[in-house]
Design brief:
The complex is a heterotrimer of chains A (155), B (277) and C (255).
Chain A lengths: L3 H25 L11 E8 L10 E4 L2 E11 L6 E8 L10 E6 L6 E6 L12 E2 L1 E3 L4 H16 L1
Parallel strand pairs in A: 1-7, 2-6, 5-8
Antiparallel strand pairs in A: 1-4, 2-3, 3-4, 5-6
Chain B lengths: L13 E10 L2 E11 L4 E5 L6 H9 L6 E6 L2 E2 L5 H8 L2 E4 L11 H12 L4 H14 L15 H12 L6 E5 L7 H18 L2 E5 L3 H7 L2 E6 L2 E6 L10 H8 L15 H11 L1
Parallel strand pairs in B: 3-8, 3-9, 6-7, 7-8
Antiparallel strand pairs in B: 1-2, 1-4, 4-5, 9-10
Chain C lengths: L8 H21 L5 H15 L3 H24 L7 H39 L2 H7 L4 H39 L4 H11 L2 H28 L5 H30 L1
Helix pairs in contact in C: 2-6, 3-4, 3-6, 4-6, 4-7, 4-8, 4-9, 6-8, 8-9
The chains are: A alpha/beta (155), B alpha/beta (277), C mainly alpha (255).
Chain lengths: 155, 277, 255
């Protein structure tokens, strides 16, 4: 029978172990890093085709994740996909003529939104719309275009 | 903490009136009447299975009778609500058959338990009280030991100290002599007597040790077949001519309480077995 | 219980469930914040939680190791060997961690608690407390219940951690996968709240079930050696089935 002091110390160490494991797992094994900062602002972009883009997909510039896709809906007027993105507030200097494209990470990876900066002096603010967009590449269209092109060349 | 005694010296300490109790389909107590005088040591004796422990459980409120009433002092135990019953129980000290000490605590902590739970006393005062109680039962030196390290008789003595922790008005002992060697037997008997003499606590002892009873009890009652069949001063019992009392007090193996458990005819059963083969 | 055998077993099971539910509410309802019982709860956290660490850690490590080994073998056939960390992490946090921890807990700590309480009943310790005017549910059941609620999620975290360690040992140590790729893939694919958080929510739910069943079966055990033995087997079986059932329900709900 251990003395009650030892028992309580052991129980305390047990609890600390749990907390340490929690912190380690939460930080190292999940995507908590992306949601660390908290403060975000919202921008919109319209695409003719979003392909396999899903909500919570990353929004990256120069390959660095700066935000997340918040929602994807069909806009009833323009019949295009309206993608709402939440950008980390620390990146508040994106040029207003930034373009957005739906890209694929790797060959078979998930799709994300890639942002290319333009050259305009003023910055995107909360609620602004990105005007230049490139839709997702659809495999069938790519094959079709290739066949069409090679037909032209061979003639 | 309510410190007024629940025992009134002018009326019987415990009274069972017309109590009827059926357990597991058996009639254990039938029109049972008992009066325990205050301030004395009373023994309840009887053959095994006569319902002695049931009587104890009825007094403490652990069981409710199918009929009849039970009084401790002038309180009707059957009418009490849960917290009222708990309040009454603090005035009653119970020694269970095996002591029933909590095995994950030292003897000291076991005796201190009721004090820590029911009083607001500071720890150093509790410590003194525990040592006093343990000294009274002769086990102050074993305070830091665990129940597993003690012999059966010693466990019961520590349990007695625990039962005395809150200075009860009534002490109930369930078979305190069962399985003890002659020395422990004598020590226990003396302890019960001292507790009664020195502090004046009404004591009710359930036992079937006929020899010991006359040494420490002021009154004795004998139970059989769910009723009290005799009551009086120990030395005067047995003068009644009642056969059950006679068999019990004389320790006769057969009589009104039969040796053989009811069974079909023996010869018939033997012969039947023979024919089947 | 002579009347019981005449009722169909499904009715008996429902009665038992109701009985157990009432018991849980009684045990939780009378909670006081007295320091005396907080100390007892801490002691139980030690006996129930800390003492289970050895089996949880060992099981965690080997589960992680074997999981990684098996999935790596399959994934490399599709050229997706780098995804092994993602698969390990998702399977672990969402399913294996909570479920296995709960079942192991039931086997090691649940049976100990059930046996302990059953034995206390058999040796009249519960009666003794009752007679002293001390509520045995408050003193014996509550600390063990609370300790279980706290210990199981913590043990799940430790299990997950050790399993990751096992995975790392195999993937990075033995197969030579690049550590940055390993952790990077995992971090990108595992959501803090959707995957890890739901798993921990399950762990909490399973902890409640495992502790509740252990104290219930101990409390209602017949005060004989056979009764205590039955209580321990009931604890393990009931916990295993309940956890697996609840796992299905929760997974479906949280998808």
């Amino acid at each position: 029978m251990k003395s009650s002091n030892q028992v309580e110390i052991a129980a305390g160490i047990f609890l600390l172990l749990g907390i340490a494991a929690l912190i380690f797992l939460a930080v190292e094994a999940t995507d908590s890093g992306a949601v660390k900062s908290g403060e975000t602002y919202e921008i919109r972009a319209y695409f003719t085709n979003v392909g396999g883009l899903k909500p919570k997909a990353p929004v990256a510039m120069a390959g660095v994740t700066i935000g997340r896709v918040a929602s994807i809906e069909l806009d009833n007027e323009s019949l295009e996909a309206r993608v709402l993105m939440k950008i980390n507030s620390s990146f508040d200097d994106l040029p207003s003529d930034t373009s957005a494209s739906v890209l694929t990470s790797g060959i078979l990876g998930d799709q994300y939104v890639g942002l290319e900066p333009g050259g305009a002096p003023d910055a995107l603010a909360d609620g602004d719309r990105i005007l230049l967009t490139n839709s997702a590449v659809v495999l069938e269209q790519l094959i079709g275009r290739y066949l069409f092109n090679s037909d032209e060349e061979s003639e | 903490m309510d410190t007024s005694s629940i025992i009134n010296p002018d009326i019987p300490a415990i009274r069972l009136e017309g109590v009827r109790m059926i357990r597991s389909g058996q009639l254990v107590l039938d029109d049972f009447n008992l009066e325990v005088p205050p301030g004395k040591v009373t023994a309840i004796m009887g053959p095994s299975g006569s319902g002695k422990t049931t009587v104890l459980k009825l007094i403490t409120g652990q069981l409710k009778p199918d009929a009849g009433r039970i009084f401790v002092g002038d309180i009707d135990v059957c009418e009490l609500k849960r917290n009222e019953l708990n309040a009454v129980r603090r005035h009653i000290g119970v020694l269970l058959q095996n002591g029933a000490l909590l095995t994950d605590m030292t003897c000291f902590d076991n005796v201190a338990l009721p004090l820590r739970e029911h009083t607001e006393l500071p720890e150093n005062l509790i410590e003194k009280l525990v040592l006093i109680k343990l000294q009274a039962v002769g086990l102050r030196g074993a305070a830091q030991m665990y129940p597993q390290q003690l012999s059966g008789g010693m466990v019961r003595r520590v349990a007695t100290a625990r039962a005395l922790a809150l200075d009860p008005d009534l002490m109930l002992y369930d078979e305190p002599f069962a399985g003890l060697d002659p020395i422990s037997l004598a020590a226990t008997g003396r302890l019960i007597r001292q507790i009664n003499r020195v502090i004046g606590i009404t004591s009710l002892v359930i036992t079937h040790d006929v020899a010991e009873v006359s040494k420490f009890a002021d009154y004795a009652c004998i139970m059989a077949n769910g009723k009290v069949v005799a009551c009086g001063i120990p030395d005067q019992l047995g003068d009644d001519g009642n056969e059950i009392i006679h068999q019990f007090l004389q320790g006769l193996p057969d009589g009104p309480v039969p040796f053989h458990y009811p069974a079909p005819d023996f010869e018939k059963q033997l012969l039947d077995n023979g024919e089947r083969k | 219980m002579s009347a019981a055998s005449s009722q169909p077993w499904i009715l008996m099971a429902i009665r038992r469930l109701g009985n157990a539910g009432v018991f849980l509410l009684t045990a939780l309802g009378g909670m006081r914040c007295s320091f005396f019982h907080a100390g007892e709860t801490m002691r139980q956290i030690y006996y129930i939680g800390a003492r289970s660490l050895v089996i949880i850690m060992m099981s965690g490590f080997f589960v992680g190791l074997v999981m990684t080994l098996q999935t790596y073998d399959t994934l490399t056939r599709f050229g997706a060997g780098d995804s092994v960390s993602t698969v390990l992490g998702l399977a672990l946090f969402k399913e294996l961690g909570p479920v296995l921890t709960a079942i192991l807990f039931a086997g090691r700590a649940g049976t100990a608690v059930a046996a302990e309480i059953g034995l206390m009943r058999a040796t009249e310790q519960i009666d003794a407390l009752d007679l002293m005017g001390i509520d045995p549910i408050e003193r014996i059941v509550q600390p063990r219940l609370l300790a279980g609620f706290i210990a199981v999620p913590i043990l799940t975290l430790v299990f997950n951690f050790m399993a990751l360690l096992g995975g790392v040992f195999f993937a990075i140590g033995m197969m030579g996968i690049d550590p940055l790729t390993f952790w990077g893939n995992m971090q990108n694919s595992i959501g803090l709240w959707e995957d890890f958080g739901t798993g921990m929510f399950k762990a909490v739910a399973f902890g409640v079930i495992a502790s509740w069943l252990a104290v219930y079966f101990g409390w209602t055990a017949k005060p004989t050696s056979e009764g205590v033995a039955k209580a321990t087997t009931h604890t393990v079986i009931a916990t295993a089935i309940s956890v697996l059932l609840l796992d299905f329900v929760l997974s479906a709900l949280m998808l």
